């Protein structure tokens, strides 16, 4: 593609492990090759407590009756006690294994001391339990107990779990393992972590992986692509964890190319240092609270999958650790709507509570087909990379969805595996009115152009509706962000030439011109006395929204308003409410400050004019630009393009 590459410094040599300059693998670099199968493949561990005290032990095992003491790898039951593994992390996703894998059965193994009963139980699509296998022990001393369960009768849904019970004696159960027959060859796996100025979080996850190394047999390498100025290797504990991880750790410093550039670096390195296409690359965010068993669960599933597929982990909300973000999701591409829950999916569900409609515990019983999976934890087999190429150089936002939909078009589905979860910052605590909204909009339009019917009349209505809401809500910077995103889409594939570096700088400069994009402490709002700002709550959502919309537009055009000044809670900052103010002090979604929105008639008219013009251009020129992106995609997603971006 024409144009100059963005200025960048060359990536620094990894502090441990092999080379990171794109040269062929040397003796010290990891050469990814398949491992010989060893009879049994660990599919998941039976854990009874989480990796952190902020996580409830009830997500792993539930004390149904009596008294029991739960440790990470063991549980001790007093007489007349019952402990159930019918929990988020305790369940084995049997439905997914039956549908997608070649495994026919799963074995539960445990070391047992004392007297009591171990039972493997199963559920169906409605959550009704049944007993599959039972073993009673009496006076056991470190006895190795084995129970088998056939992976059948689960096609539409259901799971397996382990229940424990005592009567008169005590029972200690440890080292619980769920295993399946191993394939002849086991895929090597590389974890790749993209990080930028979250050094402490990233180091914590490296430490968690180091602590779990004995169980991570299939983990061959860990790539850390550090794109920040506050680097991970500046932390005191880095040298220690690097020594513990040894040759597995490959720490790379590179220019900031966003999440796409950070994650893709792992694919790039594995592809350059492998002698087999049967390898896995597991993407992982730097700021998650990691459950290391995720690595075991995703890699085992991939190793026994009948065909190569993307295997994603689920996201739990870090600020509310009992909440599942979504069971599985898809995107409405032509209307630019990601994060749509698939039918029957749990959504922002308390995993320790019940469904208010049915009264049943919040368990994902039905098997779901995902459209895509977020890259907070997502495993991609190298066969897929070889077939469809690398991710788009989007910088970030929509890179995960685009890749999954591209893979699906080539016959590679995405599976979101229940019970394979990490904790990530709650999305609804992130404000929408930020610079990253530019990438969300621009990249969503590109993705729609590549993988949807790209109905330009529908897309134009969607964008104009967004623009009207932003202007009514006095979000002039967000309106300019939308306009810039559409303009840059229309520039064609050249806008992606530098991986997003220039676009990031430019959109921040544009947004800085709009005062309402700045955040203030609630007692330090410029030009407004703190005591003068009182909350004015919203009325209910209008039943006749179109009529109210026309009324609000008319009042804005005439410069009329109902309130001169007021404070608006974040969850009440709807267009129909904010549009009644001359000045609104709106709480930021992060709950860390406020933004001041002031009515500006001139800016409103100018942005409306620009918005209508660019959307009309999109309607007229969109199909031609779509063809440009489709033609350029093989080059944009090529190894050569990413090598150029990495300056290798």
Automatic annotation (TrEMBL):
Positions with biased composition (Low complexity): 1-17
GO molecular function, one term: glycosyltransferase activity
Location of region: Disordered: 1-27
Galactofuranosyltransferase-2 C-terminal domain ranges (all copies): 466-646
Keywords: Glycosyltransferase, Transferase
Domain Galactofuranosyltransferase GlfT2 N-terminal: 64-180
Listed pathway(s): Cell wall biogenesis; cell wall polysaccharide biosynthesis
Pfam family, one: Glft2_N
Record-stated family: Belongs to the glycosyltransferase 2 family.
Protein name: Glycosyl transferase
Source organism per UniProt: Saccharomonospora piscinae
């Amino acid at each position: 593609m024409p144009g100059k590459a963005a200025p960048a410094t060359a990536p620094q040599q990894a502090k441990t492990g092999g080379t990171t300059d794109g040269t062929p693998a040397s003796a010290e670099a990891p050469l990814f090759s398949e491992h010989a199968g060893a009879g049994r493949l660990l599919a998941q561990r039976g854990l009874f407590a989480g990796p952190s005290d902020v996580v409830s032990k009830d997500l792993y095992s539930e004390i149904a009756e009596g008294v029991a003491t739960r440790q990470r790898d063991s549980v001790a039951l007093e007489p007349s006690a019952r402990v159930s593994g019918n929990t988020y992390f305790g369940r084995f996703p049997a439905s997914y294994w039956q549908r997608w894998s070649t495994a026919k059965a799963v074995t539960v193994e445990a070391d047992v001391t004392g007297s009591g009963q171990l039972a493997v139980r199963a559920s169906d699509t409605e959550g009704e339990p049944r007993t599959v296998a039972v073993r009673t022990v009496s006076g056991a001393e470190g006895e190795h107990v084995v129970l088998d369960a056939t992976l059948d009768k689960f096609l539409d849904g259901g799971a397996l779990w382990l229940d424990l019970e005592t009567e008169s004696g005590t029972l200690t159960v440890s080292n619980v393992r769920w295993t399946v027959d191993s394939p002849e060859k086991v895929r090597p796996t590389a974890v790749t972590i993209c990080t930028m100025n979250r050094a402490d979080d990233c180091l914590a996850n490296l430490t968690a992986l180091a602590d779990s190394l004995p169980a991570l047999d299939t983990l061959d390498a860990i790539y850390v692509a550090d794109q920040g100025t506050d680097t991970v290797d500046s932390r005191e504990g880095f040298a220690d964890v690097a020594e513990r991880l040894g040759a597995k750790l490959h720490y790379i410093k590179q220019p900031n190319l966003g999440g796409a550039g950070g994650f893709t670096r792992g694919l790039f390195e594995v592809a350059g240092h492998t002698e087999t296409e049967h390898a896995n690359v597991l993407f992982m965010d730097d700021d998650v609270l990691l459950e290391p068993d995720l690595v075991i669960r995703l890699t085992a599933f991939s190793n026994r999958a009948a065909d190569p597929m993307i295997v994603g982990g689920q996201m739990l909300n870090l600020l509310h650790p009992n909440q599942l973000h979504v069971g599985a999701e898809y995107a409405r591409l032509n209307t630019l709507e990601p994060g749509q829950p698939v039918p029957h999916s749990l959504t922002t569900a308390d995993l320790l509570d019940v469904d208010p409609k049915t009264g049943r515990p919040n368990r994902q019983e039905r098997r779901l087909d995902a459209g895509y999976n977020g890259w907070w934890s997502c495993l991609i087999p190298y066969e897929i990379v070889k077939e469809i190429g690398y991710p788009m150089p989007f910088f970030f936002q929509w890179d995960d969805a685009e890749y999954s939909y591209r893979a699906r078009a080539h016959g590679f589905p995405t599976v979101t595996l229940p019970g394979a979860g990490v904790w990530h910052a709650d999305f609804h605590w992130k404000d929408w009115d930020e610079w990253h909204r530019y990438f969300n909009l621009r990249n969503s339009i590109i993705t729609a152009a590549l993988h949807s019917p790209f109905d330009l009349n529908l897309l134009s209505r969607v964008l104009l509706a967004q623009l009207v809401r932003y202007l009514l809500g006095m979000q002039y910077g967000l309106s300019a962000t939308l306009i810039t995103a559409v303009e840059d889409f229309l520039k064609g594939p050249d806008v992606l030439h530098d991986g997003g570096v220039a676009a990031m700088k430019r959109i921040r400069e544009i947004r800085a011109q709009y005062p309402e994009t700045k955040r203030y402490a609630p007692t330090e709002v410029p030009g407004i006395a703190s005591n003068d700002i009182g909350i004015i709550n919203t009325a209910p959502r209008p039943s006749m929204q179109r009529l109210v919309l026309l009324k609000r537009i008319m009042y804005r055009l005439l410069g009329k308003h109902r309130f001169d000044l007021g404070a608006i809670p974040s969850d009440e900052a709807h267009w129909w409410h904010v549009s009644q103010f001359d000045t609104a002090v709106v709480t930021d979604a992060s709950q860390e400050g406020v933004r001041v929105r002031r009515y500006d008639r001139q800016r409103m008219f100018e942005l409306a004019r620009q918005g209508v013009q660019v959307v009309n251009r999109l309607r007229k020129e969109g199909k031609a630009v779509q063809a440009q992106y489709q033609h350029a995609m093989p080059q944009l997603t090529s190894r050569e393009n990413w090598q150029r971006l990495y300056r290798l």
